[in-house]
Amino acid sequence: xxxxxxxxxxxxxxxxxxxxxxxxxxxxxxxxxxxxxxxxxxxxxxxxxxxxxxxxxxxxxxxxxxxxxxxxxxxxxxxxxxxxxxxxxxxxxxxxxxxxxxxxxxxxxxxxxxxxxxxxxxxxxxxxxxxxxxxxxxxxxxxxxxxxxxxxxxxxxxxxxxxxxxxxxxxxxxxxxxxxxxxxxxxxxxxxxxxxxxxxxxxxxxxxxxxxxxxxxxxxxxxxxxxxxxxxxxxxxxxxxxxxxxxxxxxxxxxxxxxxxxxxxxxxxxxxxxxxxxxxxxxxxxxxxxxxxxxxxxxxxxxxxxxxxxxxxxxxxxxxxxxxxxxxxxxxxxxxxxxxxxxxxxxxxxxx
Length: 352
Known about the structure:
With 352 residues, the protein is of the alpha/beta class.
């Protein structure tokens, strides 16, 4: 069967596509648990984390990548795959390609965390470097595909990718049927679109909220404008959350976000840094800066009550941690700042 189209031509995935993806992921992708977090919510409602940092290759990205390769024909797979990524999608595609025994070439921009580059190489993929902007990433991946006959595995703007990421939402609702709020990070939109599709289909009364850095808030601006807005590479490069330095949301993802999201909450850099340390010291989880965005958004909603028209619904809440791949020296630095600052500096912190 031919590869499904992407972007504006792509058909929106359905709940059935998400459920089919679950079968494609069995035996390779871990079903991550819901763990309670020691933070107070209004009304005493429980708070849980969906820790995709404990996932194979340390992030949620393997879900979409594996579902994409599983959906390809064997003939297409044997010609190999190519992807462009700042790190986590790179590792997801490399791991999926290794599972199927096919060649993978990963285009990684300069400035990506070296840990993610090293992990991608360790998974057996070939790494090609490029300039640190969206156009260079995409054009380099296309050139590799043209030269080798490999298939480009897009990082987010494809129904197979979205359906794979949507398995996170399906697991959340199965484990917590009365979930009221699910908060997840936004980069290109594949994670939030898939989670929203599954959660809103299985638990229609629940709301899904996106989280992104103030310094890379193209999703927030796009939804407010009613059209996708592109941010410059040097703008999004300012955030510590390297996993969401995407300059523009995917077309398919944007359509799903418009229909299914309650809104997007922006998170400042100080909160991103502090929450890396908070997760390590209080929750005993290693979380990369991007993965803390959902917690930062939750804290803002708890503190302010309403942020850009978004309010927490009363009931159990889940924050999705997208990954845990970060440089050890950076982790030590941020944890050290937490120890020096003291717990009282953490908004919403509680012993409950």
